[in-house]
Amino acid sequence: MRLAFMGSPDFSVPALRALHEAGHEIAAVYAQPPKPAGRGQRETPCPVHRAALELGLPVRTPARVKRDAAEHAAFAALDLDVAVVAAYGLILPKPMLDAPRRGCLNIHASLLPRWRGAGPIQAAILTGDSQTGITIMQMEEGLDTGPMLLAEATPIGPRSTTPELHDALAEIGARLILRALEENPAATPQPEDGVTYAPKLAKADGRLDWTQPAVALDRRIRALTPWPGCFFQAGEEVVRVHAAEPVAGAGTPGALLAPDVVACGDGALRLLRLQRPGRAAMAAADLLRGYSLPAQLT
């Protein structure tokens, strides 16, 4: 099948590789433009761009496509059977959605209509969902509103983290998109009930509010690590929390109950892995041998 693949982050790479290995003709790979990264701020291609180059596939990196008539024409000229989209990062306008003969299929990291939007994996963990999954969706102009072709669920365990769930869902997505292309299943409209939205995350979302229950803060850390990351104020320093676990305990929210245990609005949180400014992350027990947290965290 002649197709275009449109994606940018690590999540998208397994699907691109699966389509290539399955023998589909990938006429073009669309990815976000290279961005400055690292200490030298060198222009760095995104993961999909790098994978496409390894596979010898042509790559296009338009900065925008919504109102670019020339880009719409170039896309139509590819004469595609279908386009596969996985976390591309740009909104496709109607001329591009309609150009491939079978339209554009999206690999979405939730069980739609739950968690439409930009951060479905993090939202599922933050809210304490017991499962999530992948939905293969026929794209339309609305935000993740299109009819569903296939879906597969996977459990969210009590200690699941975003990186673990991300990798599991990426593999499911790669497998499901091959099925969708081969089987061409009938499209099913999304239910009108149960719609939720996962907003785009910001750095401020990682601040730990000690008045919240310990179980909620634990979910936040598991959901928002590695990005945007969770943190608290310890005197003049901002300390990042890479791992923690809820434990029994009570006290004024933010008060230290032990060198590595902080009172929360309900219960307490044991700090397992921390990072001070300008230093590497390390086990909290090791860090606290030579550094003491203040008696009250904010």
Q: Can you give a write-up of this model?
A:
With 298 residues, the chain is an alpha/beta fold. It folds into two domains: 2-197, 3-Layer(aba) Sandwich (Rossmann fold), CATH 3.40.50; 203-287, Roll (Methionyl-tRNA Fmet Formyltransferase, Chain A, domain 2). Helix content is 25%, strand content 28%. The chain has eight helices and 17 strands. The chain has helices at 13-21, 47-54, 69-76, 94-98, 120-126, 162-183, 214-224, 284-287; strands at 2-7, 25-30, 35-37, 42-44, 59-60, 82-86, 104-108, 116-117, 131-138, 148-155, 197-198, 230-234, 237-247, 256-258, 261-263, 268-275, 282-283. The strands form four sheets. A seven-stranded mixed sheet has the order 5-2-1-6-7-9-10. Strands 12, 13, 14, 15, 16 and 17 form a six-stranded antiparallel sheet that branches. A two-stranded antiparallel sheet has the order 3-4. Strand 1, helix 1 and strand 2 form a beta-alpha-beta unit. Helix 1 (13-21) packs parallel to helix 6 and helix 5 (120-126) packs antiparallel against helix 7. It is elongated. The chain starts with a strand and ends in an 11-residue tail after the last helix. The model has no long low-confidence stretch (mean pLDDT 96).
Question: Could you provide a short overview of the structure?
Answer:
With 298 residues, this protein is of the alpha/beta class.
Features of this protein?
Rossmann fold, Methionyl-tRNA Fmet Formyltransferase, Chain A, domain 2, six-stranded antiparallel β-sheet, 25% helix, 8 helices, seven-stranded mixed β-sheet, 298 residues, 17 strands, 2 domains, alpha/beta, elongated, single chain
